[in-house]
Design a protein that fits this description.
Subcellular location: Cell membrane
Number of helices: 4
Membrane topology: Multi-pass membrane protein
Keywords: Cell membrane, Membrane, Transmembrane, Transmembrane helix
Family: Belongs to the Casparian strip membrane proteins (CASP) family.
Strand order of the largest sheet: 1-2
Subunit structure: Homodimer and heterodimers.
Length: 201
């Protein structure tokens, strides 16, 4: 009778463990999907960000002289890095989603979880660097720098700056999700897949 009770406790603990694991896996997969859409949106919005305007630079008699100028993301190395970092984060999440769906059949002695955790940390670090660089340049474009005599451009290219700000918001959402995903990936390595067997009375 005692043995029977012990078996029921082990079986109950086994079921609870797998239900919790399955729930956590679905949460992690959902976070990756949302992070993918956030970083992909940031990549596309910034990569397609462009505005062209004509400005009056002088007059000859009564005839105004105009110059057409364009603001593009690839004119600023920080924005190019931002696009690369978020594009990499999008690709990373897409690959991780595929691995989560395929399941553990490609695991080799637990190396899959370790590799995923390492790649998550690297991707998060790269996304953080891209966001920081783009945020600095965005602040410079919006406010200028009077000490260095750098003029602001957002008063002239308002739509360009607004779209860039939207890309930054989407990217920061993706970064926060990547941070949560990284913590969950590391926690998987710290929690051994064991069931505490209750001692027989």
């Amino acid at each position: 009778m005692a043995s029977r009770n012990g078996e029921e406790k082990v079986e109950h603990g086994f079921n609870d463990f797998h239900e919790t694991k399955k729930k956590n896996d679905w949460i992690l997969l959902s976070l990756r999907v949302v992070a993918f859409f956030a970083t992909a949106a940031a990549t596309l919005v910034m990569a397609l960000n462009k505005q062209t305007k004509s400005f009056v630079i002088g007059t000859v008699g009564n005839t105004p002289l105009t110059a057409t100028l364009s603001a593009k993301f690839n004119q600023t190395p920080a924005f190019v890095f931002f696009v690369i970092a978020n594009g990499n984060a999008s690709l990373h999440n897409l690959v991780m989603i595929a691995l989560d769906i395929l399941g553990p059949q490609y695991d080799y002695k637990g190396l899959r979880l370790a590799l995923i955790a390492i790649l998550d940390m690297l991707t998060m670090a790269l996304a953080s660097a891209g966001d920081g660089a783009a945020t600095f340049m965005s602040a410079l474009g919006r406010n200028g720098n009077s000490h260095a005599r750098w003029d602001k451009i957002c008063d002239k290219f308002e739509s360009y700056c607004n779209r860039g700000g939207g890309a930054l918001i989407a990217s920061f959402i993706g970064f926060i999700l990547l941070l949560i995903i990284t913590v969950m990936s590391i926690s998987k390595l710290l929690k051994p897949n064991r069931i505490n067997h209750a001692p027989s009375p």
